[in-house]
Amino acid sequence: MTTISPLAFFEWLKWIDGRPLMDTIEEYRRRLFLRALFEFRNDGSPRYNMVLSGRSKKNWKSADLVLAGLYKLLIPESSGGNDGFILGNDEDQADQDLSLAKKLVSANAEEIGSEVVVLATEIKRRDGHGSLRILPARNVTGQHGKTASFIGYDEIHGYRNWDLFEALAPDPTRTDVLQWITSYDSIYNSPGNPLYDLKRRGIAGDDPRMLFSWYSGDICTDPAFAELPPEYRANPSMSSWPEGEAYIEQQRRRLPSHKFRRLHLNLPGAPNGAFLDQGAVMAAIVAGRHSLPPRVDQRYAAFVDMSGGSGDDAVVAVGHDEEGIAVLDLVQKQAGEPPFNPRHAVERFGLTLKSYRISTVHGDDYAGETFKQDFEKLGIRFQSSTRTKTEIYEAFEPALNAGEVELLDLPKLQEQLLTLVTRGARIDHEPNGHDDWANAAAGVVCAIRDSQSRKIDDDIGGVVSIPNDGVGAFRRDFDIAGWLNLHRG
After folding, report:
1. Distance of alpha carbon 49 from alpha carbon 194, whole angstroms
2. Contact yes or no for 418/399 (Cβ under 8 A)
3. SS3 state at 465
4. Which of 92, 195, 378, 441 is close enough to 186 for a disulfide, judged by CB 3.0 to 4.6 Å?
């Protein structure tokens, strides 16, 4: 068991400006270091093997990661060695982390300088018992986490998959390995993205070896900050800033709302060049509403975004007008994941459209006449959209900003709307991204808005008139239990 605590180690050291290091470490950070690095199980092994630490910008996240890495390099003596990695999100982040580590060694030449050698991208123990390598995340090809006792990930907000974590998966037989992840919140806020998944795990609290430390405008795990205003919850180090809260207000005035929310409130954000206002998207989402069943007294519109089946989803969206509000009732994709047979998706969508008593669906001209004919074989007219994708989004945005849209609470839809970007004169998804769910949702909102303005029911895609026998015919033809089964999950 390690006999020197991290705080005792830091007592020996100076910050890069010559001040005692401990004078720069607030109480909340001291508690984190002790919990993460100096709590043990009954068998003497560390209590935690993963730390997820989230705070807003300028709250010492990277400094804490570097300090933890140096502690793990120099203090715990492990039979498996003291090798470690710190992975920056990009070249700049890695350079900043590496520069800080080198400055700390230089500022403490008497205390630890004789113990290490500073190389181009690593700090190496002179006794050969370990090194701390600091690299951009994309430069870790061929590295192996199984040799490491410490793996640090700095700013994972841009990660879209688990590939890097899988490549650096630690040796499961080593009980002393610690993964330390630090970031402000994700651009890609939906299941399957690492930070989203890890946050959900932390909030659930069902992983006893994960230490979840999160400070944001909506989630705060620290009771000392949890009841404070959002700006203080997300910035626990604000008292150390020369301008204090004035800096936050300055950034609020200068930054787009989606950037301010992510950088300074540690809330899910949007990429550079984002087309839609994040606040407007989030305000339009009806929390907990995943779909709405058909109503006999309602007329519906539909829009479909088809796919070739190899990479993108095929998606249909259904909505209706509710006193001037475009309400999204359903967004449905094909059964299963790509690759899939797109004609099977048409069959699935046909059942859905009929359950909403929709006889016409809007869509683009993807694949020419193929899908038009497939829908028509099912008795559903396919109406080609008169707008391009960019024009659909340009028509969708004013309604969204005016509060005249109600969206479903679907993570994939939310992510795709928030990550739409302006690329020249076009509005599109990011490279390697997707927008099929967003296309279908925005398309049906435009169809509803068109019906509101033109007042011509029979000419808009997807609007259906209820027959004179209305309720009776609906009850004969539609099985609500069957609908629920069709859309469950």
Report:
1. 17
2. no
3. coil
4. 195
CA distances from 348 to 234, 332, 354 (A): 45, 9, 10
Alpha helices in 21-90 (DSSP H): 27-37, 61-74
Of 303, 300, 345, 309, give the one whose Cα is nearest residue 327. Answer: 300
Phi, psi for residue 149 in degrees, rounded to 5: -100, -15
- Residue 6 CA to residue 374 CA, distance in Å, equals 67
What average pLDDT does the chain have? 88
Distance CA 25, CA 170 (A): 29
Contact 188, 430 (CB under 8 A): no
Give Cα 138 to chain centroid, integer Å.
19
CA distance 338 to 413: 17
Which amino acid belongs to residue 233?
A: R
3-state secondary structure of 293: coil
Only one residue has tokens 């399957």, namely 192
Position 263 pLDDT exceeds 70:
yes
Q: Please give the pLDDT value at position 142.
A: 55
Quick check: helix, strand or coil at residue 253?
Answer: helix
Q: What is the pLDDT of residue 86?
A: 96
pLDDT in tens, 288-314: 899 999 999 999 999 999 998 888 899
How many C-beta neighbours within 10 Å does residue 372 have? 19
What are the Cα distances from residue 102, in Å, to 15, 67, 181, 235, 464? Answer: 12, 11, 21, 27, 69
Structure tokens at 443: 């398309």
Evaluate if residue 332 carries a pLDDT over 70.
yes
Alpha helices in 299-455 (DSSP H): 342-355, 370-377, 389-401, 411-418, 436-454
The secondary element (H helix, E strand) that includes residue 257 is helix 257-264
> Within 10 A of 433 (CB to CB), how many other CB atoms are there?
16
User: Rounded to 5 degrees, what are φ and ψ at 305?
Assistant: -115, 100
β-sheet with 301-305: strand ranges across: 381-384, 360-363, 301-305, 315-322, 325-333, 405-406
Contact call for residues 320 and 299 (beta carbons, < 8 A): yes
**Which residue's entry shows tokens 């190899």?**
310
Spell out a b/e string for 375-403, using b for 16 or more CB atoms within 10 Å of the CB, else e.
beeeebebbebebebbebbebbbebbbee
pLDDT bracket for residue 76 (50, 70, 90): confident
Tokens 């302006």, residue?
Answer: 422
What sign does the dihedral 369-372-378-380 (CA atoms) show?
negative
